[in-house]
Amino acid sequence: MLNRLEYVCLLESSFNHIHVKMxxxxxxxxxxxxxxxxxxxxxxxxxxxELPDTEEWTENLTIVSLMKNEIEEIPxxxxxxxxxxxxxxxxENKELRLIADSFFKQLHGLKVLDLxxxxxxxLPDSVSDLVSLTALLLNDCxxxxxxxxxxxxxxxxxxxxxxxxxxxxxxxMECLTNLRYLRMxxxxxxxxxxxxxxxxxxxxxFVLEQFTARGDGPITVKGKEVGSLRNLESxxxxxxxxxxxxxxxxxxxxxxxxxxxxxxxxxVDEDYSAYIEGYPAYxxxxxxxxxxxxNLSFNGDRDFQVKFLKGIQGLICQCFDARSLxxxxxxxxxxxxERIRIEDCNNMESLVSSSWFCYAPPPLPSYNGxxxxxxxxxxxxxxxxxxxxxxxxxxxxVNLARIDVSYCEKMEEIIGTxxxxxxxxxxxxxxxxxxxxxxxLCHLPELKSIYSAKLICNSLxxxxxxxxxxxxxxxxxxxxxxxxxxxxxxxxxxxxxxxEEWWETVVEWxxxxxxxVLRPFVKFL
Length: 525
Fold this sequence. Notes:
This protein is an alpha/beta fold. Among the domains are: 37-174, Alpha-Beta Horseshoe (Leucine-rich repeat, LRR (right-handed beta-alpha superhelix)), CATH 3.80.10; 369-418 and 429-524. Helix content is 11%, strand content 21%. The protein has eight helices and 30 strands. The strands form six sheets. The chain has a 19-stranded parallel beta sheet. The protein has a three-stranded parallel beta sheet with strand order 22-24-27, with no helix packed on it. Strands 1-2 form a two-stranded antiparallel ribbon. The longest helix is centred in the N-terminal third of the chain and has 14 residues, at 24-37. It holds the Pfam family LRR_RPS2.
């Protein structure tokens, strides 16, 4: 529907196509049409300090929008008689601290109540009697500490409590059996109370906010209870351990039908700073199907392996004891992975274990193989890893645009070859990474090789080599002019180097004039 409205110019798309907006002229026309056909009051953004006068609250009002004003209080003298009022928007009145209980006493036909981004501290008890409510929006009410019982609101389909300071879970949550959309935080709990989710069988969106407005720790949820939500389309939650995650998967393979999911498993530190500037550090910056795993123990038990992560687009691995990604997920399903970040996994010996190749499925075309969708890869602080990418996977990396490797004490090769690959009668003499734009290699004291043969990366924009003193050969093959002389890629921006002495020690280039051609692009830190 939004696409159609945008196509006929009733809505405008933002530059990133994530949001849409309505042009002022179209909005004025819409309000005019609305005023002709129904009784509404629209005073959005009118800089009101208090509610409109009582005489403006007529009995035939159906919609009232007072959003984005400066209303500070709704006193007890306001108790409008509006039995037909179905939608009330008071959102973004940021100074609104108090709403008297009398205000909702005669609004029993209300279906949509939006108080989001207001300063209210308590939701009036009279809201408990609004039995026709289908949507109650209280998100980003950072001072809100109390919500009355929701037991009677059995028609409620949408409830948003994210970003509130609630001190306890609202009573009657288990009675909201028609709920389709639920966003909330922990409300002071460490674990989502058991017994509620199985009764919310119609849920399509379940977002359990990671942290509250008070800065409390993350709230976890039981895997089996999330697995009972058979209609779920979008999920954001935190499982305490990998066993809970597996229990969810065994309860219901619904993750295959989820259109979006951001799942945290274990303790993932989202406060770390990215070692390489510009790399996404928070799960919100990752694609819409992302799993983050942290501080977990896998014990090499392949029966414990996640076998269904088909469609996964983002993967964050932090501080766990797996020796390779093969101990974590089924690589044959990793065709849509776009971003991978592996951090402080000191037991990890390789990205992909050599045993996996023995049992791997038949090779697929490079555009549909393992890691064929990969765009960004970051490996940081994995001190037991010597080789990053196995050569057998390189033909699949046709979409790889960014490689970041940093603080890996034993890293010797970025693209490693096995003895069998080195001794083959038809060795690979060159590899092409057509979309690679960024190559960052930082603090790799044992790095000796990026790749043993030619590497063609004609889209390179940024190269950074810091503290890699043992690296003596640059395999990057520059484009050649008609006279056979090398030229920098048209996309090349800069080459950042430290220390300066290292640049002079790099003696092996794919062309003898390559160093001189690239010198104008070099920036020494």
